[in-house]
Amino acid sequence: MKTHELICIVDNGPHTPPDDQTQCVNVGPYTAILSTASRPLESLPMSRAEAMRQAAARQALFERLLPMGTVVAAKPQLWLTPDQAATCLRANAGVQDEACAWLRNAQVLDRFRDTPEISPLFAAETTTPDALERAISRLRNRLGAHIRQLLDPVVTDIIALPVTDDMLCNFAVLIPAKAEAELDRCVEAIDAIWSDGFRIRQIGPSAAGSFALLDLAWVTADEIKAAHRLLSLDPGAPQDVVQSARRRALMTSQGETSHIKHAARIVDSTRQSGADGFHLATLLSEDQGLGDATWTAVA
Fold it and tell me: For the segment 225-281, what is each residue's pLDDT rounded down to a tens digit?
């Protein structure tokens, strides 16, 4: 059966595809958004321009999906069949719960002529284009760092997104639910740096970037059997029995316990999925696992 790239998982389902480039797999309140294109037989090297184009298209899709519910973006290049996607949703039923060139013109030089980056240009007898570009680049970097310093006390987390030639900085920020007024004051302070020259664009209420990324690992039938043996459990053991066995194994363990927690996840997800093989989900943040160093209980 053909496989398709998993783009994200959305709650508040069932949903219908937002466009003809995607398809939906609905299981209970969760929807897996897959591409309609099948996995290519051969993956060719991708140019930087094409990678940026695909990233922009993917981001635009995320923004269209935001009104549907909570969007958990999937790590790129995760390929599943629709049946595997459905099994993945059943095996990881709680995953959503763990988881919302203007600088180069004369106005810039005039506004920032007294700054340490620009003032030497006016003191010199001649100025080369390279010197001008280096000075503006240093000014850009300093202003971007200053803006981030203004945001840091307000936000819980911040991601630096790619910038184009006409952008000073581009951030996705995560703020506490009641911190909107503080963020507004911070934006006012940023605007005050150059009210006539800065154009501030805010996208919300959810950030265009995601602070949680979904990754999947295939669990084989042998791994399922090994997990049951480790916890001394029979197939189909109810959840309370699984949790008791997990606690007992953790209490008697003399060393590392991550394999015990991982085994309990496999056993519990096997019960939920009813399958002899499935994808187990892990939530990542900035390419790091959330919670336990190896696995995060999202099933």
Answer: 999 999 999 988 888 998 899 999 888 887 778 899 999 999 988 988 888 898 988
Specify whether the CB–CB gap between 195 and 166 falls below 8 A.
Answer: no
Q: How far apart are CA 294 and CA 221, in angstroms?
A: 21
Residues 92 and 117 both lie in one domain:
no
Q: What is Dmax (Cα atoms) for the chain? A: 85
In a domain, 297, yes or no: no
Is 7 in the same domain as 90? yes
Please tell me the total count of domains within the chain: 3
Asked if residue 237 belongs to a domain, the reply is yes
For 49, 102, 131, the CA distances from 137, given in Å and listed in that order, are 22, 12, 10
Taking each helix axis as running N to C, give the angle between helix 82-91 and helix 258-273, from 0 to 180 degrees, rounded to the nearest 10.
120
Read off the tokens for 161.
């997104």
Which pLDDT belongs to residue 226? Answer: 94
